[in-house]
Amino acid sequence: MYEEKQKDHVHVGEAKQTSQPPAENAVNEVSSSAPRFRLDMLKNKAKRSLTESFESILSRGSKARGPLDSSGSVDLDSSVSNTLSSTNKEPSLCEKEKDGLPTLPIGSAVKTSGSVGDLSSITEDCPVDQSVTLPQQSFRRRANTLSHLPTKSQESLAPVETSPSVPQRKLMSDYESKHSQQAADAESPVRTRRHSWRQQIFLRVATPQKACDSPSRYDDYCELGELPPRSPLEPVCEDGPFGPVKEERKRTPHELRELWKKAIIQQILLLRMEKENQKLQASENNLQNRRLKLDYEEITPCLKDVTLIWEKMLSTPGRSKIKFDVEKIHSAVAQGVPRHHRGEIWKFLAEQYHLKHQFPSKQQPKDTPYKELLKQLTSQQHAILIDLGRTFPTHPYFSAQLGAGQLSLYNILKAYSLLDQEVGYCQGLSFVAGVLLLHMSEEDAFKMLKFLMFDMGLRKQYRPDMTILQIQMYQLSRLLHDYHRDLYSHLEEHEIGPSLYAAPWFLTMFASQFPLGFVSRVFDMLFLQGSEAIFKVALSLLGSHKPLILQHENLETIVDFIKSTLPNLGLVQMEKTISQVFEMDIAKQLQAYEVEYHVLQDELIDSSLNDNQRLDKLEKANSSLRKQNFDLLEELQVANGKIQNLEATVEVLLTSEGKLKQAILTLEQERAALLKALEEMQKKIGDTDGNPLLTRQEHMDAD
Amino acid sequence: MAQETTPGTSLEGSHPTYTYKVVLLGSMSVGKSSLAYRYVKNDFREFLPTVGCSFFTYTHNLESATVKFEIWDTAGQEKYQSVCHLYYRNAHAALLVYDIAKKETLKKAKLWLEELEKKFLPDEIVIALVGNKTDLAAEREVTTEEGAEFARTNGLLFMETSAKSNHQVNDIFMAIVQELLRREKEKASAPSPHERSTIDLKEGTPKRRCCWL
Questions:
Q1: What are the residue ranges in chain B where pLDDT is below 50?
Q2: CA–CA dist A370, A411 (Å, integer)
Q3: Residue A14: pLDDT above 80?
Q4: Does B192 fall in a domain?
Q5: How confident is the model at residue A609 (pLDDT cuts 50, 70, 90)?
Q6: Residue among A180, A354, A496 nearest B70 (CA)
Q7: Which InterPro entries did the record assign (chain B) (predicted)?
Q8: Residue A507 and residue B82: Cβ atoms within 8 Å?
Q9: Which of B46, B25, B34, B59 shows the shortest CA–CA distance to B133?
Q10: Which of A430, A466, A500 is the closest to B212 by Cβ?
Q11: Is B79 within 8 Å of A462 when comparing Cβ atoms?
């Protein structure tokens, strides 16, 4: 089709360039005074293109300026010749043409001013684009049109923009609008219908409002900076689909001017209507989106009077600066939260929290505006993108790949990862952000995420070391021990700790497994109490399904029950679970168990430290003993040396003693021998003289 | 190493029942949960990201023995690595899963191997390297040889699988079963066979999954 048209355009161009007016065509043109006849002719033979219709209109218009010269007839003729020879099979256009043609001044000399010739040559290439792009890009075109009010055409812009002189442009645009409408007609019956529908609206609206709108016309032009100089050539197009067909051929400039005014005003109106229409459609889309987002079953439908209480609180003037009674808020949340006000109520609860805690708690993030964050790049992009399609994949708002829901979710998570560099993006967060997004706009959802993470302290469980998560698991197991001893023992018996089933409860606030009606109730409480609410819900959930859990007798079925069956139990159970939560108070235990955990942890560290120290000590003792040992060994060696010395001395002494003894012995023997010898000698003396011997003996003793 | 659970424990050698803990480790979205699901339920579905850990069991009834697998499926995001040790403690086998269409996931699997080598002695745990998503062959970034080579140099079992098109999922788990049983036999026959294994079994029981926080 497009190709055909383009071919036709070439024809037109060629025809013009060669400027060969076939005689029969001229006759045809003249014979348009008999419209019926001409119609038949056309119907039988004519195959038309967009440009042709355009050109015929053009020539029609140009004629209004006065007698046409021969160059005009060339144009006309060529267009008609095209009409006859082109291969476009669109009889409906011919009919259109027929409607238009009778208004032509019949019999006027077929002459065209040079300017028209220029015009047609200008248009030569433009319509090519137009015919190609028009059906496909009608939306963009319309958008274009909005920014170029003075052009009358709704669907054709390019030619207007390219036409060099203002009067021409005005002409052109006028023609174009007709032309394009005709073209639209030509394209399909549907188009025809749309055209007439539009025309109807246009006429209907334009007529009554014409008067009141006319003063604003120039303002509109000024706004757009395209105030066209008013030339006498302007009021050329009086006929066509835009207004009642005038029977007069000669009009006063004044009349023409009025007509122009009218046409312009009408066009402006039409554009405005379209704008309005778009706005309406947008708001309708918003509504639809909201309905889509909030498409979940509430587990405790909010009663009317509770809804009224909420509405009253929400609509209090200066709400963000008034402290409401805490008890009242609590009881209202406990009684129920109307789904369609939920987002607003969460924001309200956050406001109230801020009023109560004037001094921001602990660390607050930098106050970078959301829009700024969106402009930056995050290192977590990969992780976020992976999880986009895995967050509420069955929810209609999030299911479309890179649809509105996923894009908003991406924006929030990206902004958060930039705001809180320590946490960045942590799996689980996408669910939290997703729930928020279902209840409010993207930017509000971001603010509320920030509120929950920083003010309500949820962020600590996502920190890189995840110690808080481990503490929470310990706390939950202790609470279970306190409140549901039998269940605790049952689970313990099968070695099921909370980390086996409860980690997602904490990290996604139940959102990854439980129905949204339940999750939104959890969030209601989360906005009041922070992560304490999760403990309560977990406890209450396990408690109220205790008999069922106790029925299961092995690790796999128990875990499977808690993970898969529990979230899909009936609304009644859910309601019961939630209502129990409002009666619980576990703040003290939580605190106690956190301390307990730390103490246990410290002891663990302590004992492990002691061991080390002991080892150290023992090693030290060992080495000192070794040293001592070494010293003693040295001493021993010295002593041994001494001993050997002494022993040697002893030996020497012993031998000398032996020698001495022997000497004594010999001396005694000598003495004995001497005594013997003396006795013998005394005997000998006594034998000779007894006395002297005795005296000698006595003498010897006395010595 | 493994413990024989009471019901199946008939006399030695006849038909013992072993229970093993198998843990799945690897980057985000490489298909850990899908592998487990394919293996246990023989089905494929899209998974939500695993937050914390999830748990499956599967029982093989083999001629020589009954082997029960407790499959622990962990969270992939690096953030969760600090809690992962809670889950792989006392594991008998580990599957290091990567995505053949994402090169960096193999790198991550290598890091996991280092981590496991710190915590386990080589004969304490059977480790398999698994290149998942062969259905995405057109987007492949890691060649089969690359994976196989890495597995060979580190003494790991290796297979490329697709949980989606059910390619070799069963095979890799079976390979693990065979390896575990082979080690079981080896251990049983090394010292005086009967006593050794019974001692082992008794030792194993109280230690298993001792404390999760």
A1: 1, 4-11, 192-213
A2: 9
A3: no
A4: no
A5: low
A6: A496
A7: P-loop_NTPase, Small_GTP-bd, Small_GTPase
A8: no
A9: B34
A10: A500
A11: yes
Q: What total of structural domains would you count in chain B?
A: 1
Question: Which of these, A199, A204, A48, lies nearest to A131 by C-alpha position?
Answer: A48
Burial code (b: 16+ CB inside 10 Å, e: under 16) for A651-681 equals eeeeeeeeeeeeeeeeeeeeeeeeeeeeeee
Structural contact between residues B212 and B7, judged by C-beta atoms closer than 8 angstroms: no
List all residues 6 or more positions away from A663 whose beta carbon is below 8 Å from its beta carbon: none
Q: Do A462 and B209 touch (CB under 8 A)?
A: no
Chain A contact present for B52, CB below 8 A = yes
Pairwise CB contact (< 8 Å): A427 & B79? yes
The stretches of A514-586 forming alpha helices (DSSP H) are 516-529, 532-544, 546-551, 555-560, 571-581
Strands B66-74 and B53-61: antiparallel
Domains and CATH numbers, chain A: 2-186 (no CATH), 294-359 (1.10.10.2750), 362-456 (1.10.8.270), 467-586 (1.10.472.80), 623-702 (no CATH)
B76 found inside a domain: yes
Closest CA to A130 of A50, A10, A53: A50
Name A65's Cβ contacts closer than 8 Å, sequence gap at least 6.
Answer: A113, A233, A236
Token reading at A472: 């929470």
CB B67 within 8 A of CB B89: no
Q: How confident is the model at residue A191 (pLDDT cuts 50, 70, 90)?
A: very low
The residue among A382, A500, A560 with the most chain B CBs within 10 A of its CB, best to mutate, is A500
| Residue of B79, B83, B213 with shortest CB distance to A497 | B213
CA distance A566 to A549: 9
On chain A, the residues whose CB falls within 8 A of the CB of B47 are 390
Domain with B100 in it? 17-186
User: Helix or strand or coil: residue B131?
Assistant: strand
Least confident of A329-333, A370-374, A633-637, B188-192: B188-192
CB atoms within 10 A of CB A571: 15
**Which segments of chain B does DSSP mark as H helices, in order?**
32-41, 81-88, 103-119, 144-154, 169-189, 193-207
Residue B197 in domain: no
Q: Choose among A521, A495, A488, A522: nearest CA to A506.
A: A522
Interface test with B, best of A391, A413, A427, A474 (most B CBs within 10 A): A427
Predicted model pTM: 0.56
Do A499 and B83 count as a contact with CB atoms less than 8 A apart? yes
How does A426-441 read in b/e, with b if 16+ C-beta sit within 10 Å?
bbbbbbbbbbbbbbbe
Give contacts of B80 with chain A, Cβ < 8 Å.
427, 466
Q: What is the tens place of the pLDDT at every residue in A17-61?
A: 444 444 444 444 444 445 555 555 545 544 444 444 445 444 555
Nearest Cβ partner for B82 among A465, A473, A508 = A465
From A426's Cα to the closest Cα of chain B, the distance in A is: 7
**CA-closest candidate to residue A519, choices A294, A335, A327:** A294
Q: Which CATH number do you get for residue B117?
A: 3.40.50.300
Provide the pLDDT for residue A659. Answer: 93
Q: What is the mean pLDDT of residues A429-445?
A: 95
ipTM of the complex: 0.70
Contact call for A386 and B52, based on CB within 8 A:
no
Is B139 inside a domain boundary?
A: yes
> Which residues of A have a CB under 8 Å from any CB of B?
383, 386-387, 389-391, 393, 424, 426-428, 430, 462, 464-466, 469-470, 473-474, 477, 495, 497-500, 503-504, 507-508, 512, 555-556, 559, 563
What pLDDT sits at residue A33?
A: 46
Return the structure tokens found at A531: 């992560």
A463: pLDDT strictly greater than 60: yes
